[in-house]
Amino acid sequence: MTITNIAVDELATPYDGLSPTATADFNHNGFVHLSGVLSPDTIAEYEPTITSEVIRLNTQHLPLAERDTYGKAFLQVTNLWQQNEKVKELVFSRRLAGIAAALLGVHAVRLYHDQALYKEPSGGITPWHADQYYWPLSSDRCLTIWLPLQETPLEMGPLAFARGSHNFAFGRDLPISDESEARLKAAVAEQDFEDVVEPFALGDASFHRGWTFHHAGPNRGTQPRRVMTVIYMDADIRATTPTNDNQTADLANWMPGTAPGQLPQSPLNPILS
User: What keywords sit in the KW lines (predicted)?
Assistant: First the structure.
C-alpha cells in the first residue's frame, strides 16, 4: 500500500485517543490539545500541497515592517478545499470531524470553512481574541481544529488558550486587533484564567470552542509556522442575524443563500461526520 493510500485510510479511521472524560473536559476548559491526531507520514503527505496552495493564493505581499498587527500575525488563505482536491481530502476527513462531534457532544458536524494560517519567520503575535465574534451562529456548538504541519516548539508561537474563558462574556464584541490584545490580556490576568501554552509535536492538534479566548506568540524560528485550521459547527445549528459587519460578510461568504433562522445547507456546508 502506498503512503498516499495509508494517509487516506487514516483520515477515514476514527481517532482512538479521546479519554472517557474528553467531552466533559472540553466543556470545562474550552479547549483540548490531543497527541497523535494524525501520523507524521500523513502530515508529510498533505503539507507540501497545502504550502504550495498558500504560496499560490496568498495576496499579502507587503514587507512585514509595513503591515499592521493583524497582517504581521500570519498569511491567511481560506477554503483551500475548493481550490485543491487533495486538500479537500484532509478538510473533509471523517477522523477530524468525528473528534469535533465527540467533543461538542453532537451527533454530527457541518463544515463552516477552512483556513491556512502561516506565521512567517519574525512574524508577530496573534492578538488575544475569540473566533465566534465573526460567526453568526445560533449556539456555541462550534469549534476550530488547529493542526500544525511541523513540530511547533515555543519559539515558533504555538496557539495558547485561556482555560475556562469560554464562559466569560466580557470582550465578545472585540475583533482581533491591538485593542483586543490589550483589553483581553488584562481581563485574562484579572480573572486569573490560566494562560496555557505548550509545544506541539508533529501530528498533535488542538480543538477550541468558538468563545475560548486564545492568542499566539511571535515566530522566533527560522521557518514558517505552517498551520491548517478547520471550523466545524453542530449539524443542527442555525444562522442568526449578524451583529457586526464581519458576521454579515461571513454569512454571505461561508453560508451563501442561508437566511437567519435557517440551517446552513449550502454546498459549502456539508455534513462531515
Answer: Dioxygenase, Oxidoreductase
